[in-house]
Design a protein that fits this description.
This protein has 222 residues and is of the alpha+beta class. The protein has one domain. The strands form 2 sheets. The protein has a 5-stranded antiparallel beta sheet with strand order 2-3-4-5-6. A hairpin with a 2-residue loop joins strand 4 and strand 5. The radius of gyration is 20 Å and the shape is globular.
Length: 222
């Protein structure tokens, strides 16, 4: 009986060690890291804002059903511009104001309000966003027990009752896979059922739906 007990202890210890190794092991990057020139990154962020501005203007003019197709590079640049403190490189300031820039500035303010980290949130670094087929794939580095840990996920984006909806298809911490069902449950409990975080998922008044299609983010105007 004692031998069986010790054997179980050894198995549990080995399992814990393997789990720790997998948690801290860095997975393969979603894409090869490239140095994006500041000018190109700023242009991508401006393109993102321009497309949102065009949707908002179309809605104000009474048009419906207009679509904006946004690349992952444009989204990544916009996120970097909205959160320069968590980005690898700070996006340079935009060009001097042009006609219609006030509208784009308003859109930028909305983006900053919805993506800035609050004091109780965990800061993330080395963010990657990739659109592949009909899925979004993301990867970022955060802290776990004082150690850098890489989180990688994929899933499908949609809308539900005026809010962004996310259905995870895969999730892993380090190189350890986590069941998607557990992630979905945590997502619904922590985000969808929490008013403070749920509000950040609310779609703009001029957007009726969003999805990933052919490797691009598609926003559908109301």
């Amino acid at each position: 009986m004692l031998k069986i007990y010790r054997a179980v202890q050894i198995v549990l210890l080995v399992g814990i060690l393997i789990s720790l190794i997998l948690l801290l092991k860095r997975p393969q990057r979603l894409q090869v890291q490239q140095v994006v020139p500041p000018v190109a990154q700023a242009a991508a962020a401006d393109s993102f804002q321009t497309k949102l501005g065009e949707l908002e203007q179309a809605h104000a003019n009474g048009q419906t059903g207009l679509e904006a197709h946004i690349s992952s590079q444009e989204v990544a640049a916009a996120l970097a511009a909205a959160n320069p403190q968590t980005a690898n490189q700070q996006v340079p300031s935009a060009q001097p104001a042009q006609p219609g820039s006030a509208q784009q500035s308003s859109t930028t303010d909305d983006l900053n309000a919805n993506t800035s980290l609050s004091p109780d949130q965990v800061a993330v670094t080395d963010q990657q966003v990739v659109f592949d087929g009909d899925q979004v794939k993301g990867q970022f580095t955060t802290k776990l027990a004082g150690k850098d840990v890489v989180v990688t996920f994929s899933g499908r984006l949609g809308s539900k009752n005026g809010y962004v909806d996310f259905v995870p298809t895969s999730f892993q911490v380090g190189s350890m896979p986590i069941p998607a069902a557990l992630v979905q449950e945590a997502f619904e409990k922590k985000i969808l059922n929490d008013a403070s975080t749920r509000d950040k998922l609310k779609l703009p008044d001029y957007v009726s739906d969003l999805k990933i299609e052919n490797g691009q983010l598609v926003l559908v105007e109301k």
